Amino acid sequence: LPVSLIDMVKNLIDCSRRDFRADESYASLDDALVDLKLVRDNPDCFLCGVGNSPTFSISSKLYGRRQVVEKIVKLYGSDDCDGLVVHGRAGVGKSSLLLQVFTHISKRDGSYFLRAKFEQAGVNPLAVIASMFDALCDAFVRDSQPHIRHNVAAELESALGPAGISALLSVTPSVLRIVSSPALGPYDQFMNRAASLSYSFQKLLEIVSSHSVPIIVLLDDLQFADISTRMIIMSLLTDTENTPFFVCCYRDDDVKPGDDLSEWLECLHSRDIKTVQVENLSLEGVNMLISESLKAFPRITLPLSVQLHAKTRGNPFFLRRFIDSLVSRGLIFLSLNPPRWAWDLEKISNVEMPVSVVELLVAEMQTLSPELKEGLRVVACLGSSVDKRTMEIILDRLDIDLVAALGELVTRGFLVTDDVSGVRFSHDKVQQSAYESMTYDEQKNLHARLGLILCGQDLLHDDEYGYLLFVAATQVNLGGLDMSLHQSKRVYIGALNLRAGKRAIELSAFDTALGFFQSGTMWVSNCWSADYDLTLALHTSATEIACLLNDLVKVVKFSSEVVANAISYEEKLPCLSYLIKCQAYCGKVSDAKRIAFTVLERLGEAPPREIGEPSLNVDMNSTVKMLQNTPDHFILKMKAS
């Protein structure tokens, strides 16, 4: 007989002993009926028990979420709900809940399910949105008929024109599978790329959704999206006809009254977008998770669940990591006679809980082998995920077996595999913990090491490695300026930053672009004579973007470098123009006029006269008298002087 049935019979016999019965004996026949139903409904768990090859694992099943799942499904099917705003504290399982619910709905209804997950660092938020639209275009081309694609292409070309199509193609290459690359007109280069992208994304979604199956869009971790990306999202939410069903998800911990995100969320109240809060698990939910993980009846695991619920406050992520730590410390263990999971409740009750899940994870990481620690730290430095191609490049240059280390870290739950990105952290708190397990100097050294490894590829000319451009430049910059490197290597890194900055401009990520240009100027400091063209290009580009961002301090800093070191006055003019423009924007009009008049005099042009000057009044009166009796058609034919 299975061990579980033997235990049930034993517990039934024990219940007749009254004061001498064991703790696991039944208190009533109803308790026995509950266990029998569990055996019938879930035999793999409650009948088979731990089996012949017991390994501890926690299922990804949603425990204790029936009510919130039913609410989300009901709102999705409601005619008066255009979308959801889902929020909750870190670790409550918002992302996994929404992924499971809407993956099921999309398979059931045949709809498209798109997800844009924003990261805390390392990934440009606009690139996340662009990647989502790439996925939409790929799915639409895969499923649609040729005549439908032709109609969509015609509507896109009519709505956006060459400039809008070009803006889309610069960040969403898969659009090229629907429309052909346009020829830009002479004035298209002067378009406002950020505004054009916002409108183009809106029209792309609107037109494709009118010719496709229903679309569900999940915008996850919105607290990490920047202001410009949220503006694009707001445009998609408020201005798009044939609106898809939007689900916006954010973390309560990172939102404060009056900040940018809270004000952005306030703007959603005018639409039929409902709010859903995801809270920590109840004791019942925790006990469901513990019972199925330990393959023991809920009435038996309840005392343990009470302890774990009190210590973790029912936070699912905290709970799972704490259980893993108890297993690794031997406080939850496998009893061999008979084979089943057991636990030391007294010792567990005495375990001192860390203040936060980060402290728990850091403490758990300290028990890992040096190879596993190093593997975690490498991935943490590279970002929330590492794609397969990046891993292949760095594999042979590290002193550890990274493949084996990452495999073990996946098994232990620190990382999860991803068919697209290779591996990613199971939660951003894991990445934060792994990164904070290093000292500041250790972080810099590892960033520098990874950056130099990645810079070994031909990132300046070979488009095959274009995906590495941002990663390599970011890593080497985080490593800090290293004057011990040969000058040719520092010049290469400066050129890498120039290319990365220009690519960021194409993505309308102007803050990111300025960061690359600024880092590039540090790598080529004192290189005006050795590599003049690169140094001039970096400083001029930094001045231009700082002007665009109205950062007068940086405009003054970079333009001063150019004015002091540029060879010709023509090469100084762009930076002087940006300086004048930025001073005017920032309210320093008199300073802007002074510099502008100086430039005009240097170019041999007479500076404009101030209103009120006697000579100007005389000339204006003379012009008025000359023209007052002149016919209009004669004035219109006058040539400019």
Compile the SSE list and pairings.
Blueprint: H1 3-14, H2 29-41, H3 43-46, H4 66-76, E1 83-88, H5 94-109, E2 112-117, H6 125-143, H7 146-171, H8 193-209, E3 215-220, H9 227-239, E4 245-251, H10 260-266, E5 273-277, H11 283-294, H12 298-312, H13 316-328, E6 332-336, E7 339-343, H14 345-349, H15 357-365, H16 370-382, E8 385-386, H17 388-395, H18 402-411, E9 415-418, E10 422-425, H19 428-436, H20 440-454, H21 469-478, H22 487-506, H23 510-523, H24 532-548, H25 552-565, H26 569-585, H27 589-602, H28 614-627, H29 632-636
Parallel strand pairs: 1-4, 1-5, 2-3, 3-4
Antiparallel strand pairs: 6-7, 8-10, 9-10
Description of the molecule:
The chain is an alpha/beta fold and 641 residues long. Helices cover 58% and strands 8% of the residues. It has 29 helices and ten strands. The chain has helices spanning 3-14, 29-41, 43-46, 66-76, 94-109, 125-143, 146-171, 193-209, 227-239, 260-266, 283-294, 298-312, 316-328, 345-349, 357-365, 370-382, 388-395, 402-411, 428-436, 440-454, 469-478, 487-506, 510-523, 532-548, 552-565, 569-585, 589-602, 614-627, 632-636; strands at residues 83-88, 112-117, 215-220, 245-251, 273-277, 332-336, 339-343, 385-386, 415-418, 422-425. Strands 2-3-4-1-5 form a five-stranded parallel beta sheet, sandwiched between helices. Helix 16 (370-382) crosses helix 20 and helix 22 packs parallel to helix 24 (532-548). It is elongated, with a radius of gyration of 32 Å. Residues 186-190 have low confidence and may be disordered.
